[in-house]
Every structure is written in C-alpha cells, then in structure tokens.
Amino acid sequence: MELFTPDFGLIFWMFIAFIVLFFILWKWGWPVILKNMDERADTIDKGVEYARKAKAELDSARQEARKYIEEAQTKQAEMLRDAAKMKSQLEEEARIAASERAKEMIDAAKVSIEQSRKEAELQFRNEVSKFSLDIAEKMVRNQLKNDKAQNELVNKLLDEIEKN
C-alpha cells in the first residue's frame, strides 16, 4: 500500500521542486518565449503588409499599363482616320500616288504604335520585375537570418551549378 500513498516528506519536496521550477520558468523562461513569439508575429505581420503593398503597386502598374495601351489604341485609331482622310483627298488628285502615300503613312503609324506598345510593355515588365525582386529580397533576408539557412542555400545553389 505504500506504493500508492506517498509520504508527507515526498509530497513536500515535490511541491518545493515544483515551486522552484515554476519560479525559474516564470522569471527567465516565459519572457524569452513570449518575446520570441511576439517578434515572430511582428515579422509575419510585416511580411503580410509588404505583400499587400506590393499587390497594390502591381495593380496600379497594371492600370497604368492599360492606360498606355488605351492611349496607343486611340492614337492608332486617330492616325488611321487621318490616313484615310488623306488617302481620299489624294485619290482625287492622283489615284496612284495617293494609294502609295497612304500605304506608307499607315505602315509608319503601325510601326509607331508597335513601338509605343513595346515601350509600354517594357516599362511594365521592368516595374513588375523590380517589385518582384524587392519582395524576393525581403523574403530571402527574413529566411536567411541564421548561418545554418545561409549555408543550406549556398550548398543547394552549388549543387545546382554542378548539375548544369
């Protein structure tokens, strides 16, 4: 029966050990754990905020690109209308000369529109790549805060280089 009913002395020393352990954890353990949890929560919140900002900037860049494309289309339509008017006027004077000249103007308008579209696309791609690189840089910085993660990344990249 002694196995199932501990002595008062054993209970007393177990209680004292529990109190000492609780005090040590309360004094030094819990503050460190809670501080680390708060820092991690702040890091996550900042990452979410960065992602939201990047999404907003990407949306604004898309809207700006759409605006450039619409402007290019209106310019294209306007240039095509002007070319058609010129064509009809020149046909009255000289049908053969007018058709050649209108064709040249339409080709020039198409080239100009194509160049404008390519410039808008290039600018859009540059902005998107810049945002992507900024996001990737911030994410890699957060992930590579310790030496172990840095070493793993370097080893992985070296293995990939050796395979290629």
Task: Report what the structure shows.
The protein has 164 residues and is an all-alpha fold. It has a domain at 57-134. It has helices spanning 8-93, 95-143, 147-163. Helix 1 (8-93) runs antiparallel to helix 2 (95-143). The longest helix is centred in the N-terminal third of the chain and has 86 residues, at 8-93.
- Which parts are unreliable, with pLDDT below 50 for 5 consecutive residues or more? none
Strand content: under 5%
| Total E-strand runs | 0
Helix-strand pattern: HHH
Helix content: over 70%
User: Which geometry do the CA atoms define?
Assistant: rod-shaped
Counted by DSSP, the helix tally is 3
User: CA-to-CA gap between the ends?
Assistant: 73 Å
Estimated structural class: mainly alpha
Mean pLDDT: 86
Radius of gyration: 36 Å
Largest sheet: none
Brief summary:
The chain has about 160 residues and is mainly α.
Strand-helix topology:
Elements: H1 8-93, H2 95-143, H3 147-163
Helix pairs in contact: 1-2
